[in-house]
Structures are given as structure tokens and as C-alpha cells.
Amino acid sequence: METKEISQAVIGRLPRYLRYLGDLKDDGVERVSSQELSELMNVTASQIRQDFNNFGGFGQQGYGYNVEYLYEEISKILGLDHRHNFIIIGAGNLGRALGNYLNFERRGFIFKGMFDKNPKLVGDDVRGVKVMSIDGLEEFLQENDIDIAVLTIPKTSAVDIVNVLVDNGIRAIWNFAHVDLNVPEGILVENVHLSDSLMKLSYNINCKEQRSE
Ligand code: NAI
């Protein structure tokens, strides 16, 4: 399947398709038309068809999509048919919330380790994973096959730790620290800023209030 040069906007919509298809699958639905999916997801059927055409279409016109097949294909496109081991750096509020989230495993993301610089937190149990001292990070990375590091530490700490991660085999960083990280070519960084989403909400509240004035 040709997956080159697919826009990030399309890739960004795939997880949402996957969530809805997962629910349909759980409800025992076998086929779904683009029209039905469109009504469920509140996007146009033509948007859905356009998105899926990037990957060859997935289904027969008029006959609808096979839910199980579509779910599996989108999972493969998103790389979810592979396991990805991840560690979390920063065992504070956010790090623990993420560590405690069970659904990552369902998607093939396996929680393997958690690190903190605060000795008082070392040894704490977060869903079966013991918090380790940050001093042991390099050795741990050398001995374990970890793809992804999740950064839930302040921004100065995040900047300082990037080289250690990259030099020891980390290929991707899920960055919650409020800083743009400089990484060598080939290392992937996905920034997540919850407040961006909140600011978008604030903008939309303001627009709505102005319209009703
Ligand atoms: P927290 O203070 O509860 O936890 C931070 C933890 O990081 C502490 O346990 C601290 O000991 C540890 N730490 C600091 N430097 C370290 C280092 N060099 N190595 C290992 N551990 C280190 O803070 P919280 O609420 O968990 O937030 C963590 C960070 O994430 C904060 O900097 C915050 O600004 C950011 N944040 C980002 C969000 C986002 O949407 N991107 C949302 C909430 C917080």
C-alpha cells in the first residue's frame, strides 16, 4: 500500500476514525457506509472517502466498509500492529496519570519504566512499574529495547535530557514539557500541550459570546 506523501492533516484524523471503528467493532457492527460513519462522526461522507482514497479506498462504493478490515488497516497505517516500548521521565502528577492509563497497552504501547530525580519517589509503584532513579536511565536504555520516551518534566530538565535519550537509542519523544526540543535528524518529536486545546476552546467561547451580543 502506498502511504507516501500523505498529509499530516489526514494522518491526524486517522486516530479518530480508529476510535469510532473500535466502538462499532465492540458493538458487533460488521459493515458501515461512509454516510453512516459521516453521521456518527459529524464529518462529511466526501471527506471520509477522500481521506480513505489516500490509502486506496478500503471499500466498495455502495456496499460500505468492512469494519474489522478497516480497523485493522488503519491500525497498520498508524503502526499499531507493532509493539512500542516506552518510558516516562518525571513521576509527578502528569507522569503518573499517563502511566496509570491502561489503554496505551491496548494500542501496543508498553509501559516499561519510569524515572525521577527525586529520591523520595524512587521505588513507588505506578501500575506495576517501579519508579527508578534518573541516575540509572542510561544503563536501563542500554539494556532494554525502548523506542519512546515520554517527557513529563519541567522544560529545562527536558532540554538537558534529550541527548542522553537520543545517544541511548530513543527514536521518538512524546514531549509534554513546554519547550521545543532540538533533536538530531531522524528523531521524532510529538509535542502535546493541553493548554493549546483549552485556548482554542477559549477562542470559540469568545466568538460565540460576540455573535450573541
Ligand atoms: P510535577 O511537579 O508533579 O512533576 C514533575 C516531576 O519531574 C517531579 O517529580 C520532579 O522530581 C521530576 N523531575 C524534574 N526534573 C527531572 C529530571 N531532570 N529528571 C527526572 N525527573 C525530573 O509536575 P507535573 O504536574 O507532573 O508536570 C510536569 C511537567 O509537565 C511540568 O513542567 C508542566 O509544566 C508540564 N505540563 C505540561 C502539560 C501539557 O499539556 N503539555 C500539562 C501539564 C503539565
Structure in words:
- It is a single chain.
- This protein is α/β, with parallel strands linked by helices and 213 residues long.
- The protein has two domains: 8-77, Winged helix-like DNA-binding domain superfamily/Winged helix DNA-binding domain (Arc Repressor Mutant, subunit A); 84-196, 3-Layer(aba) Sandwich (Rossmann fold), CATH 3.40.50.720.
- Helix content is 46%, strand content 17%.
- The protein has nine helices and nine strands.
- A seven-stranded mixed sheet has the order 5-6-4-3-7-8-9. Strands 1-2 form a two-stranded antiparallel sheet.
- α1 (8-26) runs antiparallel to α4 (67-77).
- The chain binds 1,4-dihydronicotinamide adenine dinucleotide.
